[in-house]
Amino acid sequence: MADASPIETHAHVLTLAEPLPLDSGRALAPVEIAYQTYGRLNAAKDNAIIVCHALTGDQHLASPHPKTGKPGWWSRVVGPNRPIDTNRFFVICSNVIGSCMGSSGPSSMADDGAPFAMRFPVITIRDMVRAQVALIDHLGIDRLHGIVGGSMGGMQALSWAANFPERCGAVLVLASAPRQSAQNIAFHEVGRQAIMADPEWKGGDYYTADLDDPRKVGPEAGLAVARMAAHITYLSEQGLTQKFGRRLQDRDAKTFGFDADFQVESYLRYQGLAFTDRFDANSYLYITRAMDYFDLAEEHGGRLANAFAGLKTRMCLVSFDTDWLYPTSESRAVAHAVNAAGAPVSFVELSAPFGHDSFLLDVPALDRVIEGFL
Fold first, then answer.
1. 243 exposure class (CB count in 10 Å sphere: 0-12, 13-18, 19+)
2. What 3-state class would DSSP assign to 97?
3. Which of 3, 172, 203, 261 is the most buried (most CB within 10 A)?
4. Closest Cα partner for 129 from 311, 297, 294?
5. Residue 292 among the catalytic residues
6. Are strands 78-79 and 345-350 parallel, antiparallel or unpaired?
7. Is 336 a catalytic residue?
8. Could you give the dihedral angle defined by the CA atoms of residues 147, 150, 154 and 156, in that order, rounded to the nearest 10 degrees?
9. What one-character-per-residue DSSP string does 331-353 give?
10. pLDDT tens sequence across 234-282
11. Where in the sequence is the signal peptide annotated (predicted)?
């Protein structure tokens, strides 16, 4: 389905005219939302799709990343004649609030001229979606043709369906869950503690005068460990075994020590160090906490079906058989709840060896589901 034709891409930053109300009871101001668009909005403004990114993602959905130079994180899926076809759809992807790629977050400047750091207010998944609603209001879009998200992006898609059903067209949720499990909260806490234990964290006040790159200093070692721990949860045992097994690095296997003896060790260390070049440690603290707070049933009286009482549009849920971070049982629970609420829903478990990251990788069956559903 790929096409070499160029994608019409535009980068924007929206500054909200009013403070953004938050679940904490506070209001965030000033608020900037960095976003990318792909394709063209038609005259009726009814061909727009929002793609919601995951924890460490950003708005660079199908365009090169400005820091790494790598292709957009879903270039395989979004573009001319791809599953999300930019010849037909106007695709929007915004950096979530709390992040560090242009939207307001801990590294942003507060009214007093200093970075927010840990003064940034606590945010939730629903707060992220409120910012996206403000964005489509700015674009003059009353109702989205579709909302698509994987992992934390799937949580955002679920929050759209639950809290703004009248603005939703088709809702596609990939490899996600209606709440964080205790195990997932525990993994996040390991990462947060690694960051805060790094002496360079300094209570979150590690930013320098060079705010264009606040990660030139800071808790890079702690952030790298957090990324390594999280990255393990994105993979499957089958995938790790196929890719690395117990293979040693290309050096004398008899030289024992604490260097990266095994290929899998070297891979994880690379993932951790590369991550520190593009992500802010405080943003990692805030966004993982937002995920941990997410509990769609609790938001709606303790019953998950209540969350979808006003939903009239179609929903599709996709899980992967090797994903132990958000296993199939989570998607099935949402499907049952949507069905109990009387809304149309479909559900499929796909087979892939890549674990949780399967929604980002080459799974042709997923391409067919996305294209057919939208």
1. middle
2. coil
3. 172
4. 294
5. no
6. unpaired
7. no
8. -70
9. HHHHHHHHHHTT--EEEEEEP-T
10. 999 988 888 888 888 876 544 555 677 888 888 899 899 999 999 999 9
11. none
- Residues in the chain, total: 374
- 212 assigned to a ligand binding site: no
Q: Which residue has the tokens 């063209």?
A: 40
Domains of the chain: 9-180+296-373 (3.40.50.1820), 184-287 (1.10.1740.110)
26 marked ligand binding residue = no
Instruction: For 116-165, give the secondary structure using H, E and C.
Output: CHHHCCCCCHHHHHHHHHHHHHHCCCCCCCEEEEECHHHHHHHHHHHHCH
Burial of 248 by CB count in 10 Å (0-12 exposed, 13-18 middle, 19+ buried)? middle
> Which one of the listed residues 94, 99, 107, 151 is annotated catalytic?
151
pTM: 0.94
Task: Convert the pLDDT of each residue in 53-105 to its tens digit.
Answer: 999 999 999 999 988 889 999 999 999 999 999 999 999 999 999 999 999 99
